[in-house]
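User: I've been trying to design a sequence by hand for this structure and keep getting stuck. Would you show me what you'd pick, starting by listing the structure so we're on the same page?

Assistant: Good idea, let's start from the same input. This is the structure you sent:
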């Protein structure tokens, strides 16, 4: 690849080359550590003498912008600091919009590996040690072979037929969702599914009802689409239906495992929600993010499976049951909005990467997904039991676990006054990553507590890490 240098005319060739290379290094366009072409090669590319190039290289080396390594080549010095941008630049016409985006907090971001604690209780993390890498590799190789037939062509926005068919069979069997492949749009994670639904239904001022406490990225996403948000409180049976406003256009719920508290929505409450949505003409978004993992009682039907009037958009994801970094989700859309969602998907990013779709379809069709879910279920069940035993034992003085029958996180409410921020700070000092429950409340009075994800912590680490938490709590009361 040629380095971008423009030489004009035949005067001051060394000066032109020096100024352009110096500017490129100081602006960061030539990044620290970049190897630059040998003087002979650059001279041939620019049509100037090698001596001119060598003179410029020597001058930049004297200024410590370049550094030479004998027998290897010449590189941009790692100590060459990029020049600061002009602070007096005129403000952008859209600066106010940019500032609004800059002011949005982004909760639930996972820390970079270097910033993660030794014992992490972050929500949404999955157990990587049990992922069937060899089987996944076979699926990826299969996907590469499938991709050859369509290479160089864009695919359908709705997704690969093979994956949509596999998803319809999987969720019909495991969750009682009533759909065919033609009802499904494949997305880049569940978050894009929420974004697409909002794009086709929400206008500035449209009322969107969300659970409170609830899932902050969904609430924030709807707000950026211009929605007028209504936080609806929840109780032990789920969202309180009579508090949903009559002019709501969208109702966002997590009925199988309320996020973040964890209780399932009762059957009477589910029916009441369906009746309410039909009465006011609203679409319900059913975010079924981790209900494959169920530990107690009989499985409940999906809300979509109970829907007789085409008012539930069922959103699912492979991030929780496979790997978060796959960023693969889907929406089973009601007929009234299905085509609009496909159009919005096409305009947003055309389609999700086809090779990944083929690999996941193969992973489902060959039975690897169900096998993986069964294995993870056993692991998560043991971790859950350990956490429950501790919070019903020596940690019960401070916290009470909210009853939950599914998923891989638990919510613990404070029984008495605890300085949660101090607890989290002190716990992180000894390598325990704890996370507050209070940040999930936006409209309702905050209930202090912890959200305890057990997907990413090893089973053998739970007792030791919770010993550390108990010791900190005892020290805080002294």
């Amino acid at each position: 690849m040629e380095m971008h240098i423009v030489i004009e005319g035949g005067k001051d060739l060394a000066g032109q080359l020096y100024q352009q290379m110096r500017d490129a290094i100081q602006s960061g366009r030539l990044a620290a550590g970049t190897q630059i072409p040998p003087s002979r090669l650059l001279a041939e590319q620019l049509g100037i003498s090698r001596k001119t190039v060598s003179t410029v290289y020597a001058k930049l080396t004297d200024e410590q912008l370049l550094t030479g390594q004998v027998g290897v080549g010449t590189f941009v010095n790692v100590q060459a600091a990029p020049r600061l941008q002009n602070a007096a630049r005129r403000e952008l016409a859209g600066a106010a919009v940019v500032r609004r985006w800059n002011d949005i907090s982004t909760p639930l971001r996972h820390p970079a590996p270097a910033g993660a604690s030794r014992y992490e209780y972050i929500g949404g993390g999955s157990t990587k040690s049990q992922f069937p890498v060899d089987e996944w590799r076979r699926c990826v190789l299969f996907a590469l072979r499938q991709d050859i037939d369509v290479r160089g062509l864009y695919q359908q926005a709705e997704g690969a037929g093979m994956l949509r068919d596999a998803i319809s069979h999987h969720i019909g069997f495991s969750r009682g969702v009533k759909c065919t492949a033609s009802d499904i749009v494949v997305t880049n994670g569940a978050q894009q599914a929420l974004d697409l639904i909002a794009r086709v239904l929400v206008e500035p001022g449209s009322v969107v009802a969300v659970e409170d406490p609830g899932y902050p990225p969904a609430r924030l996403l709807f707000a950026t689409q211009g929605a007028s948000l209504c936080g609806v409180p929840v109780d032990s049976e789920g969202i309180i239906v009579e508090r949903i406003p009559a002019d709501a256009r969208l109702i966002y719920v997590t009925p199988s495992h309320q996020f973040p508290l964890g209780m399932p929505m009762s059957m009477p409450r589910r029916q009441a929600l369906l009746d309410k949505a039909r009465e006011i003409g609203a679409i319900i978004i059913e975010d079924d993010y981790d209900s494959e993992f169920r530990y107690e009682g009989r499985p409940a039907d999906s809300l979509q499976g109970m829907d007789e009037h085409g008012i539930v958009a069922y959103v699912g994801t492979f991030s929780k049951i496979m790997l978060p970094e796959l960023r693969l989700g889907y929406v089973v859309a009601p007929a009234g909005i299905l085509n609009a969602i496909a159009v919005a998907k096409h305009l947003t990013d055309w389609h999700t990467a086809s090779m990944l779709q083929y690999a996941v379809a193969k992973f489902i069709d060959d039975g690897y997904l169900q096998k993986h879910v069964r294995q993870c279920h056993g692991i998560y069940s043991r971790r859950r039991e350990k956490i429950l035993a501790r919070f019903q034992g020596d940690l019960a003085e401070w916290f009470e676990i909210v009853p939950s029958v599914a998923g891989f996180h638990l919510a613990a409410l404070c029984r008495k006054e605890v300085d949660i921020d101090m607890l989290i700070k002190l716990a992180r000092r000894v390598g325990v990553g704890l996370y507050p429950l209070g940040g999930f409340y936006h409209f309702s009075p905050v209930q202090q507590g912890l959200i305890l994800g057990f997907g990413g912590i090893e089973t053998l680490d739970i007792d030791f890490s919770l010993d550390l938490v108990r010791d900190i709590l005892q020290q805080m009361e002294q």
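That's my pick for every position. To get oriented when you compare it with your attempt: The mean pLDDT is 91. The domain at 113-127+371-476 is CATH 3.90.1150.10 (Aspartate Aminotransferase, domain 1).
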